[in-house]
Amino acid sequence: MSCELEPLGVSRTLVTHTYDWTDLTDEWRVPRARATTAGKLKTSLDRFALVAEGD
Fold this sequence. Notes:
Layout: E1 2-7, E2 13-18, H1 30-35, H2 38-53
């Protein structure tokens, strides 16, 4: 996983969250990785935004 932050002004930041599981070999983590959907990632980023904004 990698996360890139790009300032877009005084109060805005573009967050790019990248997951690459092509080399994942841990049998215990593979099912969880496959279950990760775009919707789940968006929910995670929405929570991150709430924390970052102090709400």
